[in-house]
Amino acid sequence: MDFRLDEKAELLRKETSEFLDEVLTEEMLEGCHRSGTNHDPVFAKALSEKGWLALSWPVELGGKGRDPLEMLGYSEEMQRRNAPTYAMGTTMTVAHIVAELGTPEQKQEIVPRALRGEILIALGFTEPENGSDAAAAATKAVRTGDGWTINGSKMFTTNAHIADYVFMLARTNTEAPKHRGLTTFVVPLKQPGVEVQAVHTLSGERTNITYYKDVFVSDAYRIGEVDGGWQVMAAAFESEHSAAFIGEQYRLVNAFAKWAHETGGFDDGAVKSRIGKSETEIEVSTLLQRRAVCAAADGEDAHGLGSMSKLFSTERLEQQANQTIELVGPDSLRAWGDPTTLQGGTIEHMVRNAKGTTIYAGTSEIQRNIIAQHVLGLPRPY
Amino acid sequence: MDVKPSSEQQQLIEAFADLYDDLATPHAVQAAEPLGHLPTLWRRLLDTGVLEMAVPETHGGYGASLLDLALVAEQHGRHVAPAPLVEAQVAARLLVRLDATATPTDLMADILAGNRLVTIAVRPATDGVAGLVPAAAIADDAIVLAGDSLLLVSLDGRRTKVDNLGSMPLADVTIGDDAAVLATGQDAIDAFSYAIDEWRVLTAAALSGIASKSLEIGVAYVKERTAFGRKLGSFQGIAHRLADRACEVDGAELLAREAAWAFEADPARAPELAAMALGFATETARDTTYFALHFHGGYGFMLEYPIQLYFRRARAWGAVLESAARSYQRVAELRTTAEAGAA
Q1: CB distance from A369 to chain B under 8 Å?
Q2: What is the pLDDT of residues B274-300, one digit of tens each?
Q3: How many CB atoms are closer than 10 A to CB A124?
Q4: CA A278-A280-A284 angle, 5° bins
Q5: What does B107-132 look like in DSSP terms, one character per residue?
Q6: What is the pTM assigned to this prediction?
Q7: CA angle B175, B274, B336 (to 5 degrees)
Q8: Hey, is the C-beta of B100 within 8 angstroms of any chain A C-beta?
Q9: Measured CA distances, B226 to A272, A379, B305 (Å)
Q10: A274 inside 8 A of chain B by CB
C-alpha cells in the first residue's frame, strides 16, 4: 500500500499551483462570485494557451495523455483554489464524447474549437418536470426532413447564457420504454426558437431554464444512435458521480480556523473539536475519491465507489457549514460582500453553497440508492 | 498510489481471519464475558507470533511494519476478540524503544515466550492511580507514566478489576514504591506519547474492523428479514442509513491504514493521522453498530444476538483513552503547532 500520489502527479500539482499563482486573481474570483457564473474568459484563455483543457485526453485526440493520478493532482489543486473551471469542464466532457462517438464532421466542428477554448457547451439533461429521473425527459425531437425539430424545455442549463451549444437529451421515441426512446444532440444555442431565462440560486450561482420552440437541428448534430442516447449519457454521468467536494471543505475549515485563532475561539473545546473533525473529513473525502479514481483506472467497476466519495464529501460539507455558523455565533450572519463580513464571507457563503452540493450531480438519495444496490447488494430501494 | 493490500498483506489478513474464525466465535466471545479474556485465543496468537511481529530482530522479533499490525488489528476487531493484542504489542514496542539497559533482564524474552504479559496505561496516572488500564486485570505488569517518570508497575496486589460496558479486562492500578523506573524527563514523555500514537492507530484499525463486520451483520440481516411483505433492505429508511455507514466504514479503514503506513512513510504526519484515525473510527464504529443493531429490531436488544457484542465494544475500545471529540481536538492542536512551526 502507498497512500501518496506518485511523483508525476505531485509535479503536476505543483505546476498547477504555480500556474494559479500566476493567472488566478482575487478579482477573477470575486467577478465569478458577483456574476454567479463560474467562468472567466481571461482565465479560460490562459488555461487553453497552456494546453491544459484536455490534459487527460489521449495525445492522438489533441490531449496531453496525463494519467488518472496526475489528473487528481491537477483537479485537487484547482478545487482547493476555487478556480473557475465549471463551464470548461462541461464543454470538455461533451467534446470528449464527440471526439469518441461523433462523425468526422462533428469532430471537425466541435473538437478543435473546444480545445482552443473558443466554444462552451452546457448540459441539458434535467427538465422542469424531472430531475434525478433523467430518463423521463419529455423534450421531444421529431424527424423533419434531414433533421429534427425540437420542442420542450430544460432546467438548470447552467452557463447556457454564455454557451454556444447545449448537449441535450431528447425523446425521439414515445413508444419505446423510457430509457430506449432517448437521443442526444449537440444543439447550437444561438438560433431562433431558443430562449434562455436566468434562474438565480441560493448560492448566488446563476443558472438557467432554456426553452426550445420548433428549434431545427440538422441530423449532423445528433450524437450516437437514434434512441441510443441513454448509453451516451452513461459516459457523461459517470465522471459527475465520482466528484468529491474537497475544495469547499478546505476553504471553509481554513476560514473557520483563522477566525478561531484571531478571536480566541480556538480555546473553546467545541470549536477546536469541529476544526479537527473537518480536517479529518477532508482526509477521508480525499481517500474515498482517490480510491474511486484508482479503481476506475484499474478497470474496475467504480460506479458505487464514486457515489460514496460524492455522498460523503457533500453531506459532511453541509454538516461542517451548519455547525461552523453555530459555533461562530451571530457574527457569522454577516453576508459575503458586506464590509463587516468575517473571513471574506467564506463562512456565510458556504452555508448557501454547501446546500447545492448534495443536490446537483446526483442527489444524496440517488447516491444512496446506488450504494445500497451496487456496493451493499441490497434489493432495489423503495 | 495503491490503496489495496499487497498479496503478502492479503495472505496475512486471511491467515488471521482464519485463526479468529476458529477461536473467537461469537459464542466464545460471549462465554469469555464479563472478564473479556480468552486464554486459548491469546495462547494461539502468541504462538502465531503476534508479539514477535511487533518487535525488531535485534530484540528477538521479526519487525513487521505498523501497517501489518494494523491489518491484524482489523481482524481482531472484526471478531471483537477477547485478547490483549494491541496493549501487549504497544507495550513491547515501547520497551524496545526505551534504553534496553533500563529494563529488567530477560524481560523481553519472558514477554515473547508468553510468560509475562506487560500492558500499558494509556492515560497518565493521577495521584498515584492509573484508571481503567487496558488488560490490567489479566497482565503481570503495566507501563505507567506518572509525572515525567515512565514506570513498570507490577500488578499483583495493586489492581482493582472493573466491570465495564465493553467487557474489557480493565483495572484501576495503584502505583507502589517498588515500581521500576524505565525512563524520566522529556525522554519518558516523548516515548510515552509515541507509544500512545501507535495505540491510537491500532485501536482505530480494530474499531474499523468492528464497524466493517457490524455493517456486514446488519446488511445480511436486512436482506433476510421480511416486513410488510418485503425485505427490510428494500426500504429506503433502512437502505439509505446503511449506505451512509458504508462510506464511513470504508473511510475509517482507509484512514487507519493510511495512519499506520505514515509511521514509516510520512512520519511528520503520523501523530495527526493517528488522532484523525481514532476519532473517525470511534464515531464510525459507534454509528455503524447503532444502526446495525437497531435494524434487528427487538432481536438486536437480545443478548443472544452477536450484534450487541459489537455495540458495546464499539463504545469502549477507544473510549478508555479519549472521546472522538478529544481526538479531533488533538488534530486541531497538532495542525496549529505544525503551522506555527512552518511559519
Answers
A1: yes
A2: 999 999 999 999 999 999 999 999 999
A3: 30
A4: 115
A5: HHHHHHHTS--EEE-SS-BBTTEEEE
A6: 0.97
A7: 100
A8: no
A9: 45, 12, 18
A10: yes
